[in-house]
């Protein structure tokens, strides 16, 4: 029934059921339990892998895969097979976690540094981050960054009238919440900017396809004291002058065109690059170069990478999940094709577009813009719908702009047959003349695009500077070389395909291969997010089924799958609460109560939703302090908007008083937001809606088996009770429109292409299997806590002495007694072949351990034995057997290179690298411990020259 759970774990559960049932009864308070509660939407029993795949095939068959030439920020692309097989479908890449432990993440960090370098060079700016969630939210983050950079003064942000429609809609939602006034301006048409502003958005090329020189507008923005944000098509930047060369301060966009499937809207890696001086305000993650203990170059996350957890309500962004897997794909697309290959692809797109434009124009069709890269708009009074229908009959999807206008976008995957079908749809004769082909020619370090008559690219905007100059983009152009490069990087990393990743609060469960398979099917991967409803019936059916199952599992009435990260789900839930209060005339309700133990994104999300954060204390057991909560409610009774809590708590325990907590908030007129991060400890036994929750976000990349992918993709659906449903996200271009506040992500259904993973996981598990998964997770965490309690104090437990699905090990006594820190223990675990647990969250000096239901007892025992042995090693340091400054813990991790040559340490080579005994399955970290402070003092965020590695 539940093949995805893993046979060995299921057998252990069956054998220990007499122990498991009493354990769960002790751990989960009786007052909240509603075992097996369901509205009937979710199947009780799961199906086999073969049956689940057959059902998915039936859904996929209801989609119609046509050639998408709609454009609007999404383009059909070709994923090189070597990248699809060795990255997209490779568990070494997709089962990895965010690279917070850099010594075991050098492969994905190098790939992300390639991404940053690629983006920075194409944008023409010195610093780029390691990806954003999508283009529209990247624009929103760029707007907020511009406001921070200006500080004070105007609240006006000018928006290009030719910006993407979904971007305008996302900006409207985000701006309204924080008091920003948007003013739409026809920038290409010469309209004047507002007299006062803090920034402006320029779309380059425009949504209509128009290519124009925005330099004068950028200068005008600067004269007005603002920052210029340019949303740029990354493929166009291969052949067009860079925004940075025109004076842009911030450049954002999407890298979907670089080999990432359309996927009905995502996941795709957005990007952001900034001018010098803004790098320390960048949202999201930034990869930098530092050195390890031997002085060798090594990569790490830099600066404010986890600023939400440090600055909380003062954070500048709530982004926690990036799009690492997709950023890796886009970077490797550039590595594989190199600058010449990219120029060939981009110039080929421009060539086809120009040929099509000439053919249509020669057939009497009016083309609105003479300057373009890949998109043209045809004026056909009263005939637009007819022509779009004609094209669809011929297998091509065009953009119905209005009754008189058709939009046509050419992509890398557009064929001559597609172009012919478009021409026929307009009724243009087949013998319409062709132009001369567009080619790319190199002249030393300068690149000139030559050739084509009536080129859509104005000559003054041809890109003249060289791109992608680092050797990494000029080396791996054969499949053999590319395959070996990807293998080398993957071998540097630690992912779930090597062993357990016991990260508390992160739920690193296995992503079953069967659940992953449909992601690569063209019926799901090659679908445009704005395709006609009748062409995506299968995807919509899957989406609505999944929404119903999630609502059933959580006890809510409505679910939106649009948020493409947990942070965006948090924001959407809080915006729903805000919208609800405002609809009742309670605009003054803006206080959000948040326990001190909460995830840092909670506070940051509240601020971005226009709320004021008030912190509630926790008691000595890690629970919400009821007395302090009641005092804060009384103090803010008239302005209370919401309480955000995580259940089970961030401390890894089930709070027995949760019903009292939610009742107190409701009595004061507030709403309750229950963070769904720890839903893996509740499924089948309790539901958020029954606990008094009004709204929650869920993490499909945690509880519902979507891979973390080295730090993304993620999906953060938001679920709500009926009274909040009208205030959930909506989208102007959705195939199934709903009432709502507007979009929080670029695509109507977020990262839709990976939703079949969670669909398959739930379908194979059924309610029974999901309940067993909860039992296994709780059993594993309590087993670890019980076996390690004599060695490391377990910081928080429930009333019965039990933990939930994770436990916090207190290493502060160990440091006091031996001088060995939790950082030393984390690095030493690498020598034992483990990824470290979560460090110093939610309590400094601790490790939070979450085994998940995917791990069998043998793997748990291996981890426990390692932790016990590390404790013994620390005691040898305390006893003076090993010096405090020269022992295997403070020197960890040990690389293979450390064994070569003279050995001058107080411990043996074998103790260094084989502490648990010699094994052929040894993981060798590629670098020694990395100096984080050095990297922040000497910020390098692009590929260093090769001589740095000599």
What would you say about this model in short?
This protein has 950 residues and is an alpha/beta fold. 35% of the residues lie in helices and 12% in strands.
Keywords summarizing the entry:
single chain; 950 residues; Aspartate Aminotransferase, domain 2; globular
If you had to describe this structure to a student in words, what would you say it looks like?
α11 packs across α13 (416-425) and α12 packs across α13. Among the domains are: 3-63 and 514-765, Aspartate Aminotransferase, domain 2 (3-Layer(aba) Sandwich); 87-324, 3-Layer(aba) Sandwich (Aspartate Aminotransferase, domain 2). The radius of gyration is 28 Å and the shape is globular. It has 950 residues and is an alpha/beta fold. Helix content is 35%, strand content 12%. It starts with 6 loop residues before the first helix and ends in a 13-residue tail after the last helix. The relative contact order is 0.15. α9 (215-223) links the parallel β5 and β6.
Which runs of at least 5 residues are low in confidence (pLDDT < 50)? 1-7, 432-453
Structural class: alpha/beta
Spatial strand sequence of the major β-sheet: 2-8-7-6-5-3-4
- Which fold name is given in CATH as the topology of one domain? Aspartate Aminotransferase, domain 2
Fourth-tier CATH superfamily name of one domain = Type I PLP-dependent aspartate aminotransferase-like (Major domain)
Helicity, in percent?
A: 25-40%
Q: Quote the beta fraction.
A: 5-15%
Figure out the total of helices: 27
* Average pLDDT number: 93
Number of strands: 27
Strand count, sense and barrel status of the largest sheet are: 7 strands, mixed
Second-tier CATH architecture of one domain: 3-Layer(aba) Sandwich
Distance between the termini: 55 Å
Our Rg estimate from Cα atoms comes to: 28 Å
Broad CATH class of one domain: Alpha Beta
Q: Which of globular, elongated, flat, extended, rod-shaped describes the shape?
A: globular
InterPro entries: GcvP (IPR003437), GDC-P_C (IPR049316), GDC-P_N (IPR049315), GDC_P (IPR020581), PyrdxlP-dep_Trfase (IPR015424), PyrdxlP-dep_Trfase_major (IPR015421), PyrdxlP-dep_Trfase_small (IPR015422)
Catalytic activity: N(6)-[(R)-lipoyl]-L-lysyl-[glycine-cleavage complex H protein] + glycine + H(+) = N(6)-[(R)-S(8)-aminomethyldihydrolipoyl]-L-lysyl-[glycine-cleavage complex H protein] + CO2
Keywords: Oxidoreductase, Pyridoxal phosphate
Cofactor: pyridoxal 5'-phosphate
């Amino acid at each position: 029934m539940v093949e995805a759970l893993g046979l060995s774990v299921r057998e252990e559960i069956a054998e220990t059921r007499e122990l498991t049932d009493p354990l769960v009864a002790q751990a989960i308070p009786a007052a909240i339990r509603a075992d097996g509660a369901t509205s009937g939407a979710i199947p009780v029993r799961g199906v086999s892998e073969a049956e689940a795949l057959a059902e998915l095939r039936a859904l996929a068959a209801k989609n119609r895969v046509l050639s998408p030439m709609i454009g609007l920020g999404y383009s059909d692309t070709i994923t090189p097979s070597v990248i699809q097989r060795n990255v997209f479908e490779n568990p070494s890449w997709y089962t990895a976690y965010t690279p917070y432990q850099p010594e075991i993440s050098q492969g994905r960090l190098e790939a992300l540094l390639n991404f940053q370098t690629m983006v920075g060079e194409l944008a023409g700016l010195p610093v780029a981050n390691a990806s954003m969630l999508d283009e529209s939210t990247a624009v929103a983050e760029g707007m907020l960054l511009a406001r921070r950079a200006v500080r004070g003064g105007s609240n006006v942000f000018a928006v290009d009238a030719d910006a993407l429609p979904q971007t305008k809609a996302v900006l409207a939602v985000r701006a309204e919440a924080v008091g920003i006034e948007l003013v739409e301006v026809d920038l290409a048409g010469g309209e004047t900017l507002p007299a006062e502003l803090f920034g402006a958005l320029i779309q380059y090329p425009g949504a209509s396809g128009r290519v124009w020189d925005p330099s004068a507008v950028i200068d005008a923005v600067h004269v007005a004291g603002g920052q210029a944000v340019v949303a740029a098509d990354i493929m166009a930047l291969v052949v067009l002058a860079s925004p940075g060369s025109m004076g842009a301060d911030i450049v954002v966009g999407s890298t979907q065109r670089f080999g990432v499937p359309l996927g009905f809207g995502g996941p795709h890696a957005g990007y952001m690059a900034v001018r010098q001086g803004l790098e320390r305000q960048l949202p999201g993650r930034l990869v930098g170069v530092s050195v390890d203990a031997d002085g060798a170059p090594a990569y790490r996350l830099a600066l404010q990478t986890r600023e939400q957890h440090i600055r909380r309500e003062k954070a500048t962004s709530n982004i926690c999940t990036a799009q690492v897997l997709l950023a890796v794909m886009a970077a490797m697309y550039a590595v594989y094709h190199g600058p010449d290959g990219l120029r060939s692809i981009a110039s080929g797109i421009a060539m086809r577009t120009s040929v099509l434009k000439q053919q249509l124009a020669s057939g009497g069709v009016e083309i609105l813009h003479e300057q373009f890269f890949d998109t043209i708009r045809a004026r056909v009074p009263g005939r637009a719908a007819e022509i779009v229908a004609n094209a669809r009959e011929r297998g091509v999807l065009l953009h119905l702009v209005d009754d008189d206008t058709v939009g046509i976008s050419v992509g890398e995957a557009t064929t001559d047959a597609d172009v012919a079908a478009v021409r026929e749809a307009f009724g243009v004769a087949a013998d319409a003349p062709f132009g001369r082909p567009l080619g790319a020619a190199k002249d030393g370090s300068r690149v000139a695009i030559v050739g084509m008559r009536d080129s859509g690219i104005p000559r003054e905007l041809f890109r003249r500077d060289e791109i992608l100059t680092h050797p990494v983009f000029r080396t791996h152009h054969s499949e053999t070389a590319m395959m070996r490069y990807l293998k080398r990087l993957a071998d540097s990393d630690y992912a779930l395909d090597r062993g357990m990743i016991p990260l508390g609060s992160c739920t690193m469960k296995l992503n079953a291969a069967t659940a992953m398979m449909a992601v690569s099917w063209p019926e799901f991967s090659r679908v445009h997010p704005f395709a006609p409803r009748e062409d995506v019936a299968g995807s919509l059916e899957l989406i609505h089924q999944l929404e119903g199952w999630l609502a059933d599992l959580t006890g809510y009435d409505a679910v939106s799958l649009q948020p493409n990260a947990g942070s965006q789900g948090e924001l959407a839930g809080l915006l729903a609460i805000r919208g609800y209060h405002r609809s009742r005339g309670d605009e003054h309700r803006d206080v959000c109560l948040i326990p001190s133990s909460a995830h840092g994104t909670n506070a940051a999300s509240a601020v971005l939703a226009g709320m004021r954060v008030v912190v509630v204390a926790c008691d000595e057991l890690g629970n919400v302090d009821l007395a302090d909560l009641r005092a804060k409610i009384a103090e803010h009774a008239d302005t209370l908007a919401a309480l955000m809590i995580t259940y089970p708590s961030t401390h890894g325990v089930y709070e027995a008083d949760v019903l009292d907590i939610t009742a107190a908030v409701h009595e004061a007129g507030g709403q309750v937001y229950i963070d769904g991060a720890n839903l893996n400890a509740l499924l089948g036994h309790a539901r958020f809606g029954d606990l008094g929750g009004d709204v929650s976000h869920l993490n499909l990349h945690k509880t519902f088996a979507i891979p973390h992918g080295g730090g993304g993709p993620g999906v953060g659906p938001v679920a709500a009770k009926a009274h909040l449903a009208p205030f959930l996200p909506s989208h102007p271009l959705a195939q199934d429109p709903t009432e709502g506040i507007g979009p929080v992500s670029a695509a109507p259904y977020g990262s839709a292409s990976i939703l079949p993973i969670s669909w398959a996981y739930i379908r194979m598990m059924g309610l029974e299997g999901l309940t067993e998964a909860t039992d296994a997770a709780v059993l594993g965490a309590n087993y670890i806590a019980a076996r390690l309690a004599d060695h490391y104090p377990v910081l928080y437990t429930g009333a019965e002495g039990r933990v939930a699905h994770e436990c916090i090990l207190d290493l502060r006594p160990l440091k006091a007694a031996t001088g060995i820190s939790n950082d030393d223990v984390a690095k030493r675990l690498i020598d034992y072949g483990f990824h470290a647990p979560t460090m110093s969250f939610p309590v400094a000096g601790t490790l939070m351990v979450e085994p998940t239901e995917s791990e069998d007892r043998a793997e748990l025992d291996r981890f426990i034995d390692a932790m016990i042995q590390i404790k013994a090693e620390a005691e040898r340091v305390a006893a003076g057997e090993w010096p405090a400054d020269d022992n295997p813990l403070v020197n960890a991790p040990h690389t293979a290179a450390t064994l070569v040559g003279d050995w001058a340490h107080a411990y043996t080579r074998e103790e260094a690298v084989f502490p648990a005994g010699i094994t052929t399955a040894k993981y060798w970290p590629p670098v020694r411990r990395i100096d984080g402070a050095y990297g922040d003092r000497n910020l390098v965020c692009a590929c260093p020259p090769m001589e740095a590695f000599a």
